[in-house]
Amino acid sequence: MAYHVSQERMEELVWGELNTRGEKGGEICSMLTLEFVSCDVEEGELVLRHTVPQSAANPNGNLHGGIIAWLLDSTMGMLSRCYTGYEMTVTMDIHVSFLRAIHIGDEMILKGHINHSGRQTVNVCAEAYVNGKKCATADSIFFRTK
């Protein structure tokens, strides 16, 4: 697979985006922080962590499904930009499957993987884990805006 950044540059770009999300992304990005765990440019992988705050609860006291989708989408979006030379990409299509409840206080691990990076689109998938158990999956197509 062709990629447009080095391992060091990918780490730098992801760290930079994570550190400025609150400023650029509005209130939800400030409320739902993502932490860098690892990335592998040759394997097309990005791993992030998120600890679920009380403010993200649904009426049943679990993490709201829309926020799970947002966390998966954010992980895949960051990864897609690394494979376009850090051009802006937007979500064209996303499919999310919820497999088990995620609870307030849980530490989520979000793993993204590039399936294909073409001239106009990037196909990405992601999975959310808690305590090693898969809780949600997503597949998405991102469109290069430039």
Helix and strand topology:
Layout: H1 7-25, H2 27-31, E1 35-40, E2 45-51, H3 65-82, E3 89-98, E4 107-117, E5 121-130, E6 133-144
Antiparallel strand pairs: 1-2, 2-4, 3-6, 4-5, 5-6
User: In CATH's first tier, which class applies?
Assistant: Alpha Beta
What spatial order of strands do you see in the largest sheet?
1-2-4-5-6-3
Average pLDDT, rounded to a whole number, is: 89
Main structural class: alpha+beta
Contiguous helical run count: 3
H/E order of the elements?
HHEEHEEEE
Question: CATH fold name, please?
Answer: Thiol Ester Dehydrase, Chain A
Overall form: globular
Rounded Rg: 15 Å
- Give helix % range: 25-40%
The biggest beta sheet reads: 6 strands, antiparallel
Strand content: 35-45%
Between the first and last Cα atoms, what is the distance in angstroms? 20 Å
| CATH architecture descriptor name | Roll
* Uncertain parts: none
Q: CATH superfamily membership, which one? A: Hotdog Thioesterase
